[in-house]
Structure formats: structure tokens, C-alpha cells
Amino acid sequence: MPNRPNILFLMSDQHRADVAGFAGNNVVRTPVLDWLASEGTVFTNAYTPSPICVPGRQCLMSGKLPKSAGCEGWIDLPPSSMTFARTLSQYAYHTVVSGKLHHLGDDQMQGWTQRIAPDAQVADNQIQGAIMEEFARYEPEVGTGKWSNQKEIEQAGSIYGAYQEFDEVAADASVRNLRRFFTAPSYDRPRHHRPLLHKLSLLQPHYPFFTDEEHLTYYMNRVTPYLEEPCDHPVLSLSQQNRPVSATPRDVRRATAAYYGMIETIDGHYGEVLDELRHVGENLDNWIVIYTSDHGEMLGQHGIWEKTRFYEASVRVPLIIRWPKRFPGGATVRQNVNLCDLFATICDLAGVPTPTGLDSRSLVPLMDDARRSDAKSDNILWDNESISQFGTHHVMIKRDDLKYQWYGTDGPEVLFDLASDSGETTNVLESEEHSDNVRRFRSRLAALGHGPEADPDYVNAGYAVN
Q: For the structural domain made of 7-121+147-381, what CATH number should be given?
């Protein structure tokens, strides 16, 4: 039986899918990601299961949609949940992570066997036996929460902040750990006789919009900022904090330039890790390398900022999988996929059984088909669907080019046809042309345990095991 492959999982925070060279953006400089894309498979319609940090990351780890995972909000997975890290560790993988995981509860490992340079921090309301009245005694007169979007934009600029420092430490810790794992220079004994899953998870390009002077000045006059007005939908018209933003065009340009600078910065950190693997003699063609992000960033498009919305800029994510040993590079998959699918995909690629009951489909059949000249555009065995959820009652279902959105009592349903309306400006829900599609979407919504006719016996998305 051949040894199982090593896996390098690279992840960022809040990277919108269209700000990358491989995605066709000719302004941002992302040579490392572009190299991965040129030698890997790019998924152009990959979506987050929840367009906000905590539930998006918990769903990625568990291979379950928010309702299935019990993470309909800023809620961590229950302790000892089955994650892809825990599954691989059961099959003798060293599972090592550096950087952001955003777990909130007592189980800060969630299947990882080693955490280096962690962001481990238990939320106040997750402390066992916490006396919340005692915490309330120490609340300051001025709130300690994050800045408003207005202030985030106005304060953007050439600043070395906490997130830049965090990412430097996380990347350096990855480099040092890989060197010890493969060479142990100060204590020469073998350590790499078992397969390795190593994850580097960075904070950038999550706001605050800070970057160094070199990047800021390079991008300042090259970016094209979004200077748009919000639509009239009661949900889609709101930035994440539900507050209006009235920034000057110059402030928006500077924030956009800083965002581009942060993306170039993380690209460099990923390059450091890949260079270290080459340095210690690893053949990267034998490694599975995955890159993705937890969600996107509106960046002023449609007049709003941050995430939580089902616009493409917020809910669609970059996704690359490179493994030349099995999949020749330069392929593109256009079917709708989900970050939940990475659980089954990793298991499939590693030759490890996938646990049952997941909302996760292996992407391997799509990767195989992408390289066949006679392959149809859609694998007939693939559910060409991706689902995302924010909170308990905002749901998106995308099938083919149609994106349906349900908002409960917060606002009317929305249907975008991205084939004819890539800018997502026209709601075609009432169009006679799409009446049958709307009925199908509402039926699927009910099967997913949402809406006025929600299935009370919902268990999971019901995907067939590949």
C-alpha cells in the first residue's frame, strides 16, 4: 500500500475571489497563487457555507452546512466534533496548524494534534460556569467593539498593525516547524515517517485596511474603487454593521489599495512556506496543496462593505487544488461547489474513508472530468448546487447560473440570473421565465429545513456519497 500524500492547506481571511491574477485581475500581484493555479485546478464557482468568519470556518472543518453543524451564527462546533483534521489524525497523519482557526469554546484543538502560533482564545460566553454579571461589572463606558465601516475606510493606510504581525508570526512558525519536521537540524532523528497535514491560516486581507508604504503607493493609482449606491432591498442594501457608509472617493481608493496590498503580502507568506519545503528537499509535485478563504469582502461594491451578504463578492471564494502527481495543471471547474466539499475531497485524495452524514461531496470526479477533452460541462453525478446561510433564516441556493435567496421576514426573496446579469442588479423572481425555477428553489429550501414549509425532520443536505 503506498504512503498517503502530504497536504499543505493554505487559507486567508476575507479574500474576494476576483482579486487575484489567476482570476483575471491584472492589477494585483499574486505570483505564488498564480503559479498554484497554473499547475492546479481552479474552481471558479466555489462558495462559502456561511459568509462570515466563525460559522464559515466551523462548516469548513466539519463538512456540514450551518444548520447541520449547529453553527447558525457565531457558534463553535461542539467539543470533540468530527473534523477533517480529526479524521486524518485517526489515520496516522500529523495534523499541524499555524494561525487563525477562530474556535470559541473549550475544545481549541478540534482534531488538530499540534497548534503553533495559535489564535486560541475562549469567548467570554463560552467559559464554563462564567458568571456573566461579573463580566458586566467591568464593561467600559465606551464600547470595545470593532470600528464602524466608516472609520475602517477613513483610517486605511500605510500602517503596520496587529494582523500584519500575526501573519508574519504564523508564517514564520510554519517555516520553522516544517524545517524541524523534515530535518530536525539540532537533534538529528527522523520525524517525517508519517504523513503530514499542515495548515497555514492567515488573517489578511481582513480589515483593518493596513499595508506597508510600498504596497500602498504601488496600488493607490492603479486600483479602480467601487463607488456605487446600495440597492433598495432591506437586506442587500446594508453593510454588515447595518450602518450607512459615506466615505469620500479618495478614502475608498486608499482602502482598496490597502486591501490589494494585503493580498500581495499573504501571497508572499505562502511563497515562504513553499520555498522552505523546496529547501528541505521536498518535491512539491508529491504534495496536495489547497488554497482558499473563508469568505469575501464587498469592498464598496453595491455600496456596502464587509461580508454576510449573498452577493458574489461576499459569498464566492477562491479555491485552488494542486497535485500534479495525479492531476495535470491548468484545469478549470465551473460547477457550483462549496467549502464543505473539502472534507470529502481531502479524504478522497488521501485514501481515507469519508465519515457519513456530511454535507460534503468529493471534488475529485470534477477534477478528473476537467482534464478529459470529451467530458461534458457537467458531471451527471454531481449536484450542481451550492448552499450558504447567514444566521438562522438567511439562505442562498445556487444552481447553475441562478442564485436564489430567502430572507424570512427580513425582506423579499431574490433571484439573480448570473448568466445575463453578472453584476447582480436585477431581481427576476417574478419573471414568468423563471416561475418553474422559483418553485424548485422553494421546494429545495423546505427540504433544507428552512422557509414556511420547512421539513421538520431535516438531517442534512441529502447528498449522495461519491
A: 3.40.720.10
